[in-house]
Amino acid sequence: MKKTLCHFISCWLLITASYGAADSSLTRLKEIVAAPDFSLQDMDGNQHSLKDFRGKVVIINFWATWCPPCRAELPSMNRGWAKIKDQGIVMLAVNVGEDEYTIFSFQGDYPIDFPVLLDLKGEVINDWPILGLPTTFVVDKQGKLVYRAVGGREWDSDVLLNKIRALAK
Amino acid sequence: MLIYQVKCIYTCHPFYTVTMSRFVYTFIRCCIAAVMGLCLSLPLTAGVTISKDPDTALIGWKLNQGGFELELIQRLPDQTRAFFLARGFSPKVANDIALACVFQGIGRNTLKASEANSISVDLREWQLTSKGKNHSIKQKEQWEAEWSEADVATSSRLAYRWATFPTQQTYEPVGDYNWGMISFNLPPGTRFDVLVRWTLNGKPQQAWVRDVACAKDIHPEPQ
Questions:
Q1: For residues B111 and B124, what is the distance between their CA atoms, to the nearest angstrom?
Q2: How confident is the model at residue B21, as a pLDDT?
Q3: Looking at residue B1, what DSSP letter applies?
């Protein structure tokens, strides 16, 4: 009887785990295409073009301060950035439609140590294959879109970061 | 080979005995346990659960079926008014949206990574019924088509576009999810049923979420 109970509990756990727990990772894009280039200002007025980062892996996060899942993932992005910033990887946060004063006051509660770029008119996001915020892409050293994440992730997870580190090698 | 003498307690006569190998005996026990486990797990992963936020008293409906999870959480019209007024909308337009039964929608793919586990949603395929009449969701494109540049500035349209639930969306099985406001386009306080439709790897799926209630247009005063 005890053995049957053990089998029963194991099977139940196996079945519920396979339904309930989604992998939290990155989708490898089926069609590898060039990332649309852009040129945007950061919070200090410096201009950044995507093509300037050719030869490095770039993580590009599209977000807004009013977006709850964006706020949820930003602290882990900042922790992830601390882990990878010396590993040939660039991280950029492209804010959609908000001015620097809004973002500056937001950063009092949510520090962001990597560059925040301002897509004030929403022109850049329209060029990218995005339907909702947040969406994050990983661009390889050749400037191609390789991975996408729709919705927030735990960006300080080494399982997730190792996929990106592998592109930087 | 070790032979077991077993009383066949599940389906046979209580005094009937059979002989079988240890392997067959263990296999049968595993099969029975698996069926029992599957039966117990199904009610936990399918259907709709309802919850009430203890702080705001707003109600949420959560559908969880076949790897697609959808939450519809009430928004008070005042919440929606405030959101759009703060983003430069005129009071009239902000009020029009606020009174259109806006919910916070959260869609999520909860399946394991595999090529066969993409979930796609198209809000135009959902069906609403209220008091025996059919209705439809008012999509973001329909709202935007009603506004002139004088009503809603470009920066405000941008906020609207990205704060609302995408009309079409695909969730990959790696933890993809998103949030956004959905306008059910019914008066405050209306109760309705919504037939949610999605595809799993291209195959159509659907489920009813019954007796959903639009939040009432109340203006609670501080105690």
A1: 24
A2: 62
A3: -
